[in-house]
Amino acid sequence: MIGYAGWITDPGRKRRHNEDAYVCEPPLFAIADGMGGAQAGEVASRLAAAALRESGADAGGEQRIVDLIQEANRRVYDRSNADPNTYGMGTTMTVALVEDGRVAFGHVGDSRAYLIRDGAMEQVTEDHSLVNELLKSGKLSPEEAETHPQRSVITRALGTDPDVDVDTFTIDAKNGDVFLLCSDGLTDMVDEQEILELVERNRSNIDTALKALVRAANRGGGEDNITVVAFEIAASPAVHDGQTQEQALPPELAEQRLEDEDTLDEVDGVPVVDTQVIPTEEIQSELEAEKRARRRNLRRRILAWLALLALLAVIAALVVWRLTS
Ligand SMILES: [Mn+2]
C-alpha cells in the first residue's frame, strides 16, 4: 500500500510563472510541465492536471491511465484551437497509479519518473526529447547531452495533436520503494547521484527530502520551475501528523497565487528558452539525411584520392620512362 505521499512545487529563480502542475491524490499521481508562449504553458499543464483530478482513478491500470491522458490531451488541444492566446500550447504528462502492489505508468514528454529501491535510483521513463534521440543514435555523449543548447526540444506533448502516443508500463512494487515524479527543472539542475543522496538522507521525512531537492535545484541555478511528487510503498499507511506539506501551498492557494501573478506586468526580461515539440520522425529523417550526406562526402573523397593516386602513377611512369629512354 501507499505509505507517505507528498509534493512540492517552486517557480525556481529565473521564471516568474510556474508552468508545472501536479496531481497527488493517492493512488493517482501525476506531473505536468506546460509550454507555450505568454502564460499558455500554465493553462496547458493546469488543464491536464485538472482533467486527471476530476476523473480520478483508483483502478484500471495502464488502460485507465491512457484514457485519462487522452482526455487531458483533448481538453488542452480543444482549448488551444478555440483560444488564439493559447494556440500551440502543450504539456508533458507523467502519471502513476498504484494498485494491488503494482504501479502503472503513462508517460509523454521529458518529465521523469524514478524508482528508488535498495539504495539505488533508476529512471523508469524514457525522455521524449531531441537530446535523447541524439544520445540513442550515438550523436551525443551523455556529457554533451547535459549541456546541449536544445535540451528543451521535446518530441511528444499533450495538446498539439488530437491524439497522443502514450508510453505505458507497470512495475511490481516492493515495500520501501520510493517513486519520484519530477519536472526537468529538477533533473536539469541536480544530478541523479545527488537526488538519490538527498532522498536517502531524509528517508524518514520525505517532506524534508522534497524541500532539500528544491533547494538543490535553486542552488544549481533554478533556471526552470521545479516540481516533485513523491510516494512510498509501505507495509502500513504513513501517519500524517499535520506537518506534511507545510511549505508547499495547497492547490487552491497555489492557483490563487498564480492568478495574482498573472495580473502583474511582464517586466522581468529574463530570456527563457521556450519548449518546442519536434516529432521523432522529423528528427530521425534529419539524422538519416545527415548520414546520407556524410556517405556521399566519403565517396567523393575516396574518388578524389583515387584520381590523385592515378595521376601520381602516371607522373611516376613518365619519369621512369624519361629516365630509362
Ligand atoms: Mn520545465
What's the helix and strand layout?
Elements: E1 2-10, E2 20-25, E3 28-35, H1 40-55, H2 61-82, E4 90-91, E5 93-99, E6 102-108, E7 112-117, E8 120-123, H3 130-136, H4 142-147, E9 153-154, E10 167-172, E11 178-182, H5 184-187, H6 192-201, H7 206-219, E12 226-233, H8 251-262, E13 276-277, H9 280-324
Parallel strand pairs: 9-13
Antiparallel strand pairs: 1-12, 2-3, 3-4, 3-5, 5-6, 6-10, 7-8, 7-11, 11-12
The structure holds manganese (II) ion.
Manganese (II) ion binds at residues 33, 183-185, 224-225.
Please give a handful of descriptors for the protein shown.
single chain, 325 residues, alpha+beta, Phosphatase 2c, domain 1, 2 domains, six-stranded antiparallel beta sheet, five-stranded antiparallel beta sheet, 42% helix, binds manganese (II) ion
